[in-house]
Structure prediction request, 311 residues.
Amino acid sequence: MVYNDKYDVFYQYQGLFMLKKYTVLSFCFLTTVALAISLPKLEFKNTSSDRLADLPDFKYEDFNSAYLQELRTRFNLESLVVDCETEQEKVLAVMNWVHHLWQHNGNNEPVKSDPISILDEVITNKKHFRCVEYATVLTGCLNALGLRARVLSLMTADVETREYVAGHVVTEVYLPSCSKWVLADAQFNLMPVLDGMPLNALELQQALVNQTSALELASCDPDLTSGEYTPAEIAVYKQDFIDFIGEYLYFFRTRFDQQYTQDVTWAAGRNLSSLVLVPVGAKAPEVFQIKYPFTNLTSTNSSACFYQKPV
Prediction:
């Protein structure tokens, strides 16, 4: 599978700090972005009656499972959030750590696709991986720290007919203090925020459609707060993120089973039972990038269904 490595050029603004441990900042860096892109207005249903009666249960790894305990202790994850006062600060701190573990490589896949195995390859073999692995590792680490998270696949409107770069993968994490899912992109080390409230992927799409001038991007990356880069360089980096992610905010897909009881490669993941949020009037995708069929895919037009509170 080939993912978008066009934006590897962003790393001219990013130092590569393998396994460097940062002090968690007590604040996040916020930059308001200029919205210069034009996206279609998408319609979704948003009532409880639109939930699917026969929807499979979402399954998440138990916070106290042996797997998450090993992930938490082996990589000393609690040290990353010891000074954090809020859930959002914890997400930003862990995202920052994951972001700096390796440099993005859009063509490299891990041998095994669970968080511990990916981290072992990064640390032992200095491997560099894709957006998929950034999202997988961040999701696992947040779950290991008691914040329910899931891997979210974003896909373009032409996902069926585009040969390459039809998808991007991020993390969404549920913040009890906000009573909502929010997006965290470890590849870019950024979280969208509007009026002080972190956004999920669908809300980000709506903010871009509405050309919301108050949209901000949060990070606690020392590279963005140390003065090493000029405000103009940082603005370019964040604006390029907006330009990049916008086209992927059309179809939203997540697996029903987010547990680590078996190794799931990205290719095999297409065949696991998943839920895809589809705009009203659009057809649910049946194939990824021309030749990779989806199976066991349940579609819904209901954002309330897709963004239901995890149990």
User: Anything to note?
Assistant: The longest helix spans residues 231-246. The mean pLDDT is 84. DSSP finds nine helices and twelve strands in the chain. The two ends are 33 Å apart (CA to CA).
